[in-house]
Amino acid sequence: MIIAVDGPVAAGKGTLARRLAAALDYAYLDTGSIYRAVAAKILAAGGDAENPETATAAARALEPIDLERDDLRLETVSQAASKVAAIPSVRAALLDFQRDFADRPPGRRNGAVLDGRDIGTVVCPEANVKFFLTASVEARAARRHKELIERGEESIYARVLQDLRERDARDSGRATAPLRAAEDAVRLDTSSMDADQAFAVAMAEIARRRD
Length: 211
Ligand code: CDP
Fold this sequence. Notes:
Layout: E1 2-6, H1 13-24, E2 27-30, H2 32-44, H3 52-60, H4 75-84, H5 88-103, E3 112-116, H6 119-123, E4 129-134, H7 137-150, H8 157-173, E5 186-189, H9 195-210
Parallel strand pairs: 1-3, 1-4, 2-3, 4-5
Helix pairs in contact: 1-9, 2-3, 2-4, 3-5, 4-8, 7-8
Bound molecules: cytidine-5'-diphosphate (CDP).
Cytidine-5'-diphosphate (CDP) is lined by residues 9-10, 14, 31-32, 35-36, 78, 81-82, 85, 116-119, 167, 171.
C-alpha cells in the first residue's frame, strides 16, 4: 500500500503523512528532507545550489545519514532546496531511492507514506491513495511562522510570506515534476481544518478505498 501526500509549502503534508504512517504502522518518508539535505551539504561546503554540476554531484553522493542533519529546516536551506529541486539531473539521481522506499518499505512494513511535491505524479503514479493538500497562502505562512517561533528561531511574518510565495512559484513553475495535483488525487483544503480534522478525513478516505 502506497499513500502519496503532495502539496505546496506548509500545507500540512508532513503532519498528516506522519500521523497516517503511525496509525497504519507504515514507513514514512519526508521527500523534502532529501532535497533539503542536498542543499544543506552544498551550502555547508560553500557551493552554489543553482549550479547543475555541483548539485547533481551532491545528489549522487547523498547518503541516508545526511537526512538526519540538524540544519535541514533552516529557511536558507528551504530556499536552496527548491533551487536544487528544479534541476532535472538532481531529481533523476534521487528517484530510485524514493521508489525503493515505497516498493520495499524499511522494517518490512506493509505500506509506505511519502510526502512531497511529485509523489502522486512522478515518483509513485501507481500509489493506492493520493492526497493533495492545499490551504490559503496566508494560512500556510501563519503556520510556518508559528513553527519557526516555536523552534526558537527568529521569524518575521511578512518575510515568511514572501519566501513561501517565491518557493511555491519556483516549485510550480519548473519544467520537471512541477508541483501539481495528480488527476486521481483527493484534494483537501486545510485552511480551516486543524491537524485532527485533516487526519480524520484522510483516514476515512483510506478506509473507503480499502473496502
Ligand atoms: O515542508 P515544506 O513544505 O516547507 O517543504 P519540503 O516538503 O521540506 O520541501 C522542500 C523543497 O524541496 C520544496 O520547496 C521543493 O522544491 C522540494 N521538493 C521537491 O521538489 N519534490 C519533493 N517531492 C519534495 C520536495
